[in-house]
Write a structure and sequence with these properties.
With 118 residues, this protein is an alpha+beta fold. It is 24% helix and 22% strand. The strands form two sheets. A two-stranded antiparallel sheet has the order 1-2. The longest helix is centred in the first third of the chain and has 21 residues.
């Protein structure tokens, strides 16, 4: 009679080996999401987890094992935009209490001297 006494063998046998592959996929997807979240920036941390839950039921000397896999991954980081809220409820990119010293946005080429053509 063959006896199974180590968890690696049990996990490898569950669901005809499909559980091990599903767990591997969950782990690889989580690692990829964490790497993407850090964006290659130094000292940026990202945390996640992969969980394997085994539900075990014993009845009349038999054992049924059902496995569940899940993961927690960081949510994607999105930038933010800053505006001022005006009295009428509209938004502005300019501070409402500051005087516009230059008459609004200017053309980037205004006042440009082309040194190659005089």
């Amino acid at each position: 009679m063959q006896r199974i006494r180590d968890s690696n063998t049990i996990i490898g046998l569950l669901e005809n080996g499909e559980l091990a592959q599903r767990l591997t996929n969950e782990m690889m997807d989580t690692l990829a999401a964490l790497q993407e979240h850090t964006g290659g920036r130094p000292k940026v941390k990202a945390k996640g987890s992969v969980t394997l839950k085994l539900n075990i039921e014993v009845v009349d000397g038999t054992v049924t094992i059902e496995a569940e896999t899940s993961s927690k991954r960081p949510k994607p980081v999105h930038g933010s935009s800053f505006y001022w809220l005006l009295d009428d409820g509209s938004l502005s990119t300019q501070h409402p209490k500051q005087i516009d010293m230059f008459g609004g946005p200017r053309d980037a080429l205004r006042g440009f001297t082309d040194v190659t053509h005089g």
